[in-house]
Amino acid sequence: MAKLIDGKRISAQIKEELKAKVADLKEKGITGALAVIQVGDDPASSVYVRNKKRACEYIGIDSLSYELPEKTTQEELLELIARLNQDKKVKGILVQLPVPAHIDENTIIKAISPQKDVDGFHPQSVGALTIGQKGFVSCTPAGIIQLLKRSGIEIEGKNCVVVGRSNIVGKPMALLMLRENATVTITHSKTENLKEVCRGADILIVAIGKKEFIDASYVKEGAVVIDVGIHRDENNKLSGDVKFDEVEPLCEAITPVPGGVGPMTIAMLMNNCVQAMTD
After folding, report:
1. What is the C-alpha separation between 276 and 279, in angstroms, rounded?
2. Which of 15, 91, 116, 119 is catalytic?
3. How far apart are CA 179 and CA 182, in angstroms?
């Protein structure tokens, strides 16, 4: 029976620590706000934005909400970001992705000041991570590192396979595991012998966005499996990129979906916001 890595419990623990830190900063006269911008009313984005506001409220930092209509132009969005970059009260700026098709995502990401880039998506943040300098780290990969460490899972010297090479999860995840002295392989849709490569993993991190793609034939006995995927079926039931029931008996430890990686993303966003207040 695998150990279940409880993201709800660990994220709650991190938020409690951040709440205490924010209270301490307030006593020293240090405050800050997170500005959250949403363009359009995509239902999933609205849920994420609401959760981010709640988390801000819980740890004790202000959140400013900008809910812009779908037809907002790229220029209007860039003007708002420029204003927020200049606002000393605002310590973090987050544009909820995806943005509507007429707005270029990369242009928007680059427009946010690297000092306020709490999502960790700006090229400067990514560059700092690559060469091991201080900067904001993408929230989901940073959350996975905390899940592993706080669950007592050794990373140093282990073989880690990351399935997926997205800019938001796969690539930064590989860099963070390297930083923790793992030996890292990144796999993707063009990888040959994917099963064989995955079976060599002590720690298998799956972020490919394909429902229940990884079954028992990809996993060696005693591996740690981290499932970043989240999929909703017609009955609203959630599942991940891993066939949990099939893979779980083989594992030393595994993240469930829901309740594994998901809660960590917002906890680490809050961590980045507190970091922005102190930098």
Report:
1. 5
2. 119
3. 8
Q: Report the pLDDT averaged over residues 239-263.
A: 97
Give the domain ranges of the chain. 30-113, 139-262
Q: 215-246, pLDDT tens digit by residue?
A: 999 999 999 999 999 998 888 889 999 999 99
Q: Span 169-194, mean pLDDT?
A: 97
Please choose, from the candidates 263, 41, 8, the residue with its C-alpha nearest in 3D space to the C-alpha of residue 139: 263
Task: Say if residue 85's pLDDT is above 90.
Answer: yes
| Catalytic residue, candidates 38, 96, 146, 275 | 96
CATH 3.40.50.720 is right for the domain spanning 139-262: yes
Catalytic, 96? Answer: yes
Tell me whether residue 19 is one of the annotated catalytic residues.
no
Per-residue pLDDT at 234? 85
- Asked if 177 and 160 count as a contact pair (C-beta separation under 8 A), the reply is yes
- pTM metric for this prediction: 0.95
The active-site residue, picked from 6, 15, 52, 158, is: 52
**Domain 30-113 belongs to what topology?**
Rossmann fold (3.40.50)
3-class secondary structure, 95:
strand
Distance in angstroms (rounded) separating the CA atoms of residues 168 and 121: 7
- Is there a common fold for 30-113 and 139-262? yes
Known catalytic residue: 89? no
